[in-house]
Amino acid sequence: MRQRKGFQVSIRTSMICLFSALLTVILLVMGTLLGNYFVRSTMSVMLQYNHQLAEQTRINIDNYVSELESLISIVSRNPQVIAYIENHHENDAYTNLKNTQSVSEFISSIISEKDDIENLLIMNGDMLFEIKSNHSANIHDPFLQDAWNKHSQSVTTKLEYYDPHIPSYYVTSKVQYTIPLIQPLRDYSNYTTQNIGMTVVEINTKHFRKYFSELMHNYRFSAKIINDNNRVVYSTDDETIGRFYQNTLHRTDFYGYSVVRDSATDQMYLQTKVQSRINDWTIVLNASMVPMIETAEKTNITLWAMVLVAILLVWVVSAYLSTYIAKPVSALAVYMQEMRPESFQDTLLNVNRYREVTALYARFNEMMERINGLIEQAYHQKIRQRDAEYEALQAKINPHFLYNTFQTINSLATLERCMDIEKVVSALSKMMEYLIYRQNDIVSIMDELDYIRRYLRIQEIRYGGNFTVRWHVAAGVGEYRIMKLLIQPVVENAIKYGLADCMQGGILSIDCHFEGKSIVFEISDNGAGIREADLVALRKRLENERDEENEKSIGLPNVQGRIRLRYGEAYGLKIESTEDVGTRVTVTIPALTEKFEWLTDQQRRLGNENSHRG
Known about the structure:
The protein has helices at residues 11-77, 79-86, 93-111, 142-152, 209-219, 290-325, 327-337, 355-396, 399-414, 418-436, 445-462, 488-499, 532-544, 556-567, 601-613; strands at residues 117-123, 128-131, 160-161, 178-186, 195-204, 221-226, 232-235, 249-254, 257-262, 268-275, 282-288, 442-444, 467-473, 481-483, 506-515, 518-525, 572-578, 582-590. The chain is of the alpha+beta class and 614 residues long. Strand 1 (117-123) and strand 2 form a beta hairpin. Helix 9 (399-414) runs antiparallel to helix 10 (418-436), helix 10 (418-436) runs antiparallel to helix 11 and helix 13 packs parallel to helix 14. The longest helix has 67 residues, at 11-77.
């Protein structure tokens, strides 16, 4: 037995680190979970509270709007107002003056205490009556005329909310925003369906400030009211009232809750939206999360201080307990320290009386035997891989191909076909550059296909146009990776044994496309084909991954071996041929990007298992 003395970490130290690390992780996880639980609980309370505030604000605004609609309905349905509009043109000036005073007193008694109502107009196409205004309204203003044209033809008398605007129909212009509410007038006593006028009520947008002032000062809220036209009816930021609502807040995740972040200030807000039940308004409340984040940070500091103290106690207790737990295996450590890397075939002697250690010895020796087997298996596999790579290197510069190419150039020179000589030499130089100066074994499919195109350009000139090449390459496939010179032997095989004897009409098709997570190359020709017996023999050689000279395979077993060594048995070549009809060779490889130049051992094993199941 060959034994060697060496240094190893003691079992006691390992167990101390293991137990301490395990309990430390548990404490860290518990601390994280508790911190998250606190934040989530706080967020849940904030959500509930914000929803209650938003709902209460909605109720207040809906109550106000409902009261406002009732007031407008009283005015619009009042018989005195209806009669005033219907008989205005028929009555004399004195009667109209009395009726105007009567209607004015009636409406003033209703809205006298309503500071939120900026003005009230009653009008039809050629008559306008206004209450509570220091400005004379122009009945011919486009806004009023458009509104009258719309509501005079309306089949209903439904109250309509317009977008906030600065009224342009006063002789003295106003500079503050109002919200126009318009309701058609109809004489229901005559059962008519014709609207005879309309009531226009202008609401001062500043009235809504009282519903949000407490939230703004005490709870760091910002608020907006938005209608269905995406106009801002009211905002705590006065500059945005009447404009289109531009949401500069973007959704983000905060401990599993959806919050919004202002890209300009990088502050987060908890956003709550509620829909009015009276009209098309939506109330949007944005609560600043600064107070909650500050509270969460203070709580986390306290929590993690407690976790650190607990971790220190864990390390002390783990050191004490590990001293007793490590004693039964200490003897095993002495024997393992004597092992050398070259002594994997040695058997470890069992001199310890403990049953647990005996079991460890037995498993240790079994493990050494398995390691030896795996080393031997990996050794043979490496030899096969090196052989395949050597064969691939030999195939890179085929003397026979060079000889034929130079013969072609000589013939072209004799015939003084200078243009063809230039094409052959240019293609050959690019091929040599690809073979000699690009040392990577993994290249892009685009580069590999460019190499094949140059090779075919020489062959087409050599054979005098006896065959044509048809290409079909799927979009995007050129960006994926392939082993260098993997397809060229297949193309060369198709020309040499399929199309070389064709006088004319030969067709070589090269198709490259995706199939699931694989890339498939199909090289087919309409040449001589392969006899059935030769095809069977060729398929057997492909399965055995060996190449024999003077047979119709030009490196195909070599290609098969390279594919399976690199990617596993799920990939490789498939040959279909009919004598005097043609041959089709299918090459299947995995679709790999530049990040993955080869498959892992686990992926190759999965590929092998799948191929066996298939």
